[in-house]
């Protein structure tokens, strides 16, 4: 299960047998920077601060922030992997929320907002899209719950050239009334012989699966499509 930023800091301090003060100073921060961060669990460090913390903890900013990529120095290298090569900018799309059909104008796919995101090692060519999650339809997702307020970093489905597979977590959109009403939500794919199901993983029983034929073309007036494949999840303790 993914760990919290502060837990990863503690892990690196233990790995290095290093004090909070020494790691703070080695990262170019004040002597009490890590101690103060530990004392204020609701504070959200900036990516600049995380990069400095990573330098003081001999790790990468990607691992420290997202538990992604290398944890330690590059083997045989003389320093850390450049943070600019570990991160990219993901466009922030509309929020995703299960069970709510909203008017099409409510979905603004060009918010003009971007956030830092780890580069995707498996799909480096795909556009990265970020969504903020609303609601509890995936609060029991595995291996990591997806909760209200979390960000998910996704790869644009149309860029991947892959077929849906059992267990994939995806952003799925269904529209009705000729596209005038839309619902976007995070679901897990379950493939059956004659149908595909996009299922919630929730402690809340009110959430229901989206069930369509295997070709994703229902004949009841709905249009259902996969928008993105979920690749990373991180909480609102890091980005607000």
Please name the defining characteristics of this protein.
6 helices, 28% strand, 240 residues, 19% helix
3D structure, described in words:
With 240 residues, the chain is α+β, with helices and mostly antiparallel strands. It has six helices and eleven strands. It has helices at residues 5-16, 20-26, 33-39, 47-56, 61-66, 83-86; strands at residues 87-92, 96-97, 102-103, 114-118, 128-134, 151-156, 169-176, 181-191, 195-199, 210-213, 223-234. Strands 1, 2, 3, 4, 5, 6, 7, 8, 9, 10 and 11 form an eleven-stranded mixed sheet that branches. A hairpin with a 4-residue loop joins strand 7 (169-176) and strand 8. Helix 2 (20-26) packs across helix 4 (47-56). The longest helix is centred in the first third of the chain and has 12 residues, at 5-16.
Topology:
Elements: H1 5-16, H2 20-26, H3 33-39, H4 47-56, H5 61-66, H6 83-86, E1 87-92, E2 96-97, E3 102-103, E4 114-118, E5 128-134, E6 151-156, E7 169-176, E8 181-191, E9 195-199, E10 210-213, E11 223-234
Parallel strand pairs: 1-5, 2-5
Antiparallel strand pairs: 1-4, 3-8, 5-6, 6-11, 7-8, 7-11, 8-9, 9-10
Helix pairs in contact: 2-4
């Amino acid at each position: 299960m993914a760990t919290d930023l502060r837990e990863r800091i503690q892990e690196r301090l233990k790995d290095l047998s290093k004090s909070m003060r020494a790691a703070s100073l080695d990262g170019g921060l004040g002597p009490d920077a890590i101690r103060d961060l530990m004392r204020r669990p609701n504070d959200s460090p900036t990516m600049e601060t995380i990069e400095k913390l990573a330098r003081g903890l001999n790790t990468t900013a990607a691992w420290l922030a997202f538990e992604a990529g290398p944890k330690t120095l590059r083997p045989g290298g003389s320093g850390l992997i450049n943070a600019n090569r570990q991160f990219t900018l993901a466009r922030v799309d509309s929020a995703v929320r299960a069970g709510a059909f909203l008017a099409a104008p409510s979905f603004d796919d060009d918010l003009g907002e971007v956030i830092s995101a780890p580069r995707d090692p498996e799909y480096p060519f795909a556009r990265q899209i970020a969504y903020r999650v609303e609601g509890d339809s995936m609060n029991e997702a595995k291996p990591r719950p997806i909760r209200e307020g979390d960000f998910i970093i996704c790869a644009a489905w149309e860029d991947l050239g892959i077929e849906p597979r059992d267990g994939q977590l995806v952003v799925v959109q269904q529209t009705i009334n000729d596209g005038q009403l839309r619902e976007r939500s995070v679901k897990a794919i379950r493939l059956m012989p004659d149908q595909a199901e996009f299922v919630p993983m929730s402690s809340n029983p009110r959430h229901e699966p989206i069930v369509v034929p295997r070709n994703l073309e229902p004949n009841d007036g709905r249009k259902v499509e996969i928008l993105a494949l979920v690749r990373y999840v991180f909480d609102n303790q890091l980005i607000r």
